[in-house]
Amino acid sequence: MKISLFKKIPRPSESPSTDKRPDVNHVIQVSKKHTEREVIQIHLEDQAHSIFASKFGGRPYLPRTLEVPVNQNGQQLRLLAQIRMDELPPSRIGLSLTGLLQFWVLDDDTTGLDFEYSLEADDYRILYYPTIDESVTSTEIDYKYHPYCENKSYFPIQDEFGLHFTLEKESMSYCDFQFVQTFVKVWNQEYPDFPISNLDSLDEEMISEQFCMGGHKIGGYPLFTQWDPREGKNEDHKILLLQIDTDQFNGKEIIWGDSGVANFFITTHDLETLNFSRVLYNWDCY
């Protein structure tokens, strides 16, 4: 499965002629169309219905034969999220699977983040169970599940949230490391007589407001408050496996530092082969 970030579309006959001054709003609309892709939007509910349901936070599912994941210091990680595959709408993202996908992080002052962005980081884990044993009980889970916590919990999710999903579409976010080159390419295709090589001569704040892709989701494009950590050594991690944003719902809160956002990324090959051992994890805040 190949992800194409830029799809060449024949220029319609009504496109502005090259003897007119460029219109940035026209380029914005063309860029949105060129980079549009499917996204599974995640919507919060009060509570998950069981240990087998999709959720943020709360009590995890664990097969009887497996223990809670730990880091090299023997500290149990904490469930950040679990996604039940059969609850997702059919999509081209590549997650039309059975079973359950889980995201675990250490409840410390960095919430398991490795600032070197090593794919071998030890304080977060993504686990995939192809099948779910629904005979497992909550009592069995409680016996095993005692996640590590520092003197003060920094965990971003208060309590537990149930989830439901809708399939939508969105365009590339302004903070994606590929955005500038993509926007420039569209601009120069639409206005070859007025070429640009960067966005320095344009109203970047106005452009960024048109391409802000926050929220909880699978697929689509990421949001960052700082920079895209994939640029450079991890640019092949193009698929957004999960994004959890700062949010409030019915008096309960999700908050990453000072109103930040978290993302997990995977390569196309690793997703196709169900290899979740090389997922890139990031969170940042203002």
Automatic annotation (TrEMBL):
<protein>
    <submittedName>
        <fullName>DUF1963 domain-containing protein</fullName>
    </submittedName>
</protein>
<feature type="region of interest" description="Disordered">
    <location>
        <begin position="1"/>
        <end position="22"/>
    </location>
</feature>
<dbReference type="InterPro" id="IPR015315">
    <property type="entry name" value="DUF1963"/>
</dbReference>
<dbReference type="Pfam" id="PF09234">
    <property type="entry name" value="DUF1963"/>
</dbReference>
